[in-house]
Fold this sequence. Notes:
The chain is of the alpha+beta class. It has helices at residues 74-82, 85-89, 97-110, and strands at residues 29-31, 38-40, 45-49, 55-58, 66-70.
Amino acid sequence: MSTGTAKPQPAPGQQRRKAKGPRPKHVPQRTCVACRSTDAKRTLIRLVRTPEGAVAVDPTGKRSGRGAYLCARVRCWERGINEKTLVRALRLDGLTEENRAELLRYADERVPEGPEDEDEVPS
């Protein structure tokens, strides 16, 4: 009786080929809640609902709490805040005026003002 250590051999003419080179690294994808475009997680800005119910920017992407992502475009930030897409994604009753002002200030300071994308769907 065999000890079972031998691997089964492929049939003649059907040799198994191994992939050459390293496996491609998995890049997590996330969706902007305002424009619904999908991009790499690192290119979007994460907002998190804190346990107190406030909304805070999460630059590391590791804070605990319910998160939502916005593009690095002022238009998406304005839409997310003013049209309540962010409120819906974070499952909030609403943004306080303090939160709204803080998020708009962050967008004005850190989100680059660039030309509008031509391929974007008008809202």
